[in-house]
Fold this protein.
Amino acid sequence: QVQLVESGGGLVQVGGSLRLSCAASGIILVIGRMAWYRQAPGAQRELVAHITSARTTEYADSVKGRFTISRDSAKTVYLQMNSLKPEDTAVYYCDAEIINDQGLLRNYWGQGTQVTVSS
């Protein structure tokens, strides 16, 4: 019943901006940490940023000062990406730590959204 739905990916030029969003739906008791990961072709999936239920944040060194993660009270997490570089090109995935209606603590993943930065 729990689902994460992502949107906002696309093709941009170097220096441009994109705003990704990820909305959680279904019967959810608790949402804890939410995070964005990315995976470039031939590379390992890496953590980009995460945000706790208390709204504390942490970022990968490669995106500090350029990306901002945030969340609202409606089970949605955002990733504002500014000053984009070609090395930001990847599939971006949303992740959320959720206690579902079965009382189980699980990490749920979105389907991924492609971000391509052209030079």
User: Anything to note?
Assistant: The mean pLDDT is 95. The CA atoms of residues 58 and 64 lie 9 Å apart. The two ends are 41 Å apart (CA to CA).
